Amino acid sequence: MSSYSSPFTRAVVSSMRKLYPESLADKSFDNTGLLLEAPFNPARRQKNSVLLTIDLTKAVADEAIKRKDSVVVAYHPIIFRGLKSLTLNDSQQQSLLRLAQEGISVYSPHTAVDATPGGMADWLCDIVTGAIAPSTDSSPSVSASSSKHYSTPTYPHPQPASASPSSAVPHTRSTIHPSPPPLPEGMESAGMGRLVTFDTPQPLTAIVDRIAQGVGHPGGIPIAVPQSVAVDDMKIRTIGICPGSGSSILRGSLPDLLFTGELSHHEALSAIERGSAVIALAHSNTERGFLHAVMREKLAAELTGEWEVQRGEGLAALQESTKQGGAGVVEGLQDAYNDCECVVDVSERDRDPYGIMIRRV
């Protein structure tokens, strides 16, 4: 076993950093980047494949090991704070140790994806403005449980979807908390949270339908509305948007609608008392669909080009090293660089901890 990570892993990391620069992440609390760098083992080389997930759970780790992926790109960092030990007694540490043993690295982009123009926050903007082609799956799969009144838990099923800006309802969008300079070239609008302002106020129920289609038709839409207004009567001109937990972003002057993953009881109550509505889908239900709709395709395209470049450079370096007598050549690199395969998939096991048990009529 070498002290190097696999060449393909390095190509994945380089591609992610180009798409979602780590400098845009909120370093005040976040822990982004390459969190686990597995050594390259030529005797048991992994496939040139990447598994995308929101959360790196035991089920997702099992999936990656079974698939023989080289890298898991986990949106949420599995390591948030400094570790004083790595043991099998902790379930998350156990997953990391098992992945390292198998030669699988872990990369986390988290808030860099939120802040990047065209990233997760802008994807949610595309959803509420109708720029996302609706999914054909119009209802959750509901199975009976042993409960007399409720089904088994249901979960959203995001599908690949394309954005069509021309179909969007006319609007403007702006960044709520712009990222501080210096900014990467072409990313001047980077920052946390988005504010959508429609040219013409939209029915709240129409926005609810767009959200349901965009995130994969959850079994229910948690919504808070002022007690003095019926949901059918509410018109929305401005929407404050933040994936995941929006409490720290969606403060200050309130828009007509706050759309996020989670907001505390008291924050939601304060919002509706001031005349705003809140849609809080459950934390990762505002995030997971992005992997299917945007990240998978973007990473596959970027990685294909990056891997071709690194393969060419690597093979050329090996040839030169061979001419010099082979000094410094890592065993197994020839086979690694000869492998042109490049696959990016989204986890089938990843899901939000919370499902919806639907009442049976």
Oligomeric state of the chains present here? single chain
Helix tally?
A: 9
User: Low-confidence spans: pLDDT under 50, at least 5 residues?
Assistant: none
Which strand-content bin applies to the residues? 15-25%
**Coarse shape:** globular
Rg, Cα atoms, Å: 22 Å
Q: Quick one: CATH superfamily of the largest domain? A: NIF3 (NGG1p interacting factor 3)-like
How many domains comprise the coordinates?
Answer: 2
Q: Indicate the CATH topology of the largest domain.
A: Udp-n-acetylmuramoylalanyl-d-glutamate--2,6- Diaminopimelate Ligase, Chain: A, domain 1
The average pLDDT score comes to 92
What is the CATH C-level name of the largest domain? Answer: Alpha Beta
The string of secondary-structure elements, in order, is HEEHEHEHHEEEHEEEHEHHEE
Largest sheet, in brief, is: 6 strands, mixed
Distance between the termini: 59 Å
Sheet with most strands: strand arrangement: 6-7-9-10-11-8
- The CATH architecture category of the largest domain equals 3-Layer(aba) Sandwich
Strand tally: 13
Structural class per helix/strand content?
alpha/beta
Measured as a percent range, the helix fraction is: 25-40%
Keywords:
9 helices, Udp-n-acetylmuramoylalanyl-d-glutamate--2,6- Diaminopimelate Ligase, Chain: A, domain 1, single chain, five-stranded mixed β-sheet, globular, 2 domains, six-stranded mixed β-sheet, alpha/beta, 361 residues, 20% strand
